[in-house]
Amino acid sequence: MDASAVNSNVTVDDFDSLLSYLDQGAWETPDPSSSSFNTSTSQWLMGTYHSTNATNATVSFNFTGPAIYLFGAAGPVYGSYEVLFDGVSSTRSVYVVSNALTPCLLYCAVNLTYTAHTLTLHNLGKQGTDAGGREFLFDFLRATLQLAPVGATVTNQTLEEMDAALTYSGTCSSTTLPNFSRGGSTFTNADNVSVALSFHGLALYVFRDKKNDHRLYSVVLDSSALQIFDSISGCGSAFGMTCDITNMASVNKSYFDLDSIVLSILSKYAPRSLVNVLSTMNDSSSASPSASPGSNATLLLALNLFLTLGVLWLVWAHYT
Fold it and tell me: Distances from the Cα of 228 to the Cαs of 66, 134, 163, 245, in angstroms?
């Protein structure tokens, strides 16, 4: 990692659409819409997690950056799991005699080559004579990313959903709710309704709602290939960019609503320079970021570049 550059961590929660669950039905999660849901009493980031006892239940993540850290649960009911990183497999276990009181480090890789990386976790459950059980719980991950060259500054510019810089195509409506930025959002359940933006900046964050009647939408950044997401996502890249987001309502008449967009703008740009060395570890160390859920609010808003193959970017859910 280029220590002289502007580096930071970005947190991706288990509910984020940048994560891909091969079979969502194999995983159990809390219900953020429940009246009993309370993040302040939960040990898990934002009160959510994905838990499974199904063998070969899978979660995957693609990213570009110098380091990544994954956090989850450890205890007597938890067993073994496989980590497949850039095609290299390793087997690990989260069995311990007593339940961990905070999220534990499941895996990390540091000093990575600055290129696209793929990471997949497979639940293996109890293996042979292992003392562990069948359970596996994933909470969140953090990727360390290089934002800018040494001496640069980063500022944010927020565009609300009715900003003149946004161009809508199709029929949309507006709503007001206190959870939204400035109290409102623009939404639609019509097929192929889109919103487009031309911008100069390092990163683009798109904020929107997450509910059961919200489904698929597509994102196109500049001339990159169209990518499809379910629920919440965003995109980001260098400067002089365009972004198009299109609702894919289909016969379900599913909704998409835009709350706000945040642009990250640098004072200067420069090429990334990272050490071409791979190092991995399976337990906590001074090199890993803190796993304290209370520290994540600022990290969720950290300015980060080239997550998910350098095209699609972190978006934080507004649970309503």
Answer: 26, 32, 25, 10
- Report H helices in 82-205: none
Q: What tens digit of pLDDT does each residue of 181-232 get?
A: 888 888 888 999 999 999 887 777 787 776 667 778 888 888 778 877 765 3
Note the pLDDT tens digit of each residue in 39-64.
989 999 999 999 999 999 999 999 88
The span from the CA of 114 to the CA of 144, in Å, is: 11
d(C-alpha 202, C-alpha 17), whole Å: 21
CA 26 to chain centroid: 20
pLDDT in tens, 263-312: 766 655 554 444 444 444 444 333 344 454 333 322 222 323 333 323 23
pTM: 0.70
User: Three-state SS for 8?
Assistant: strand
Distance separating alpha carbons of residues 5 and 147, to the nearest angstrom: 7
Q: For residue 134, which of 51, 29, 58 has the smallest C-alpha distance? A: 51
Helix and strand counts by DSSP (H, E) for the chain: 1, 24
Give the distance, in angstroms, between the CA of residue 123 and the centroid of all CA atoms in the same chain: 20
The phi-psi region of residue 272 (left if phi > 0; otherwise alpha if psi is between -120 and 50; otherwise beta) is: beta
Q: Is 308 left (phi over 0), alpha (psi -120 to 50) or beta?
A: left
The CB density around residue 184, as the number of other CB atoms within 10 Å, is 18
> How far apart are the C-alpha atoms of 85 and 80, rounded to whole Å?
16
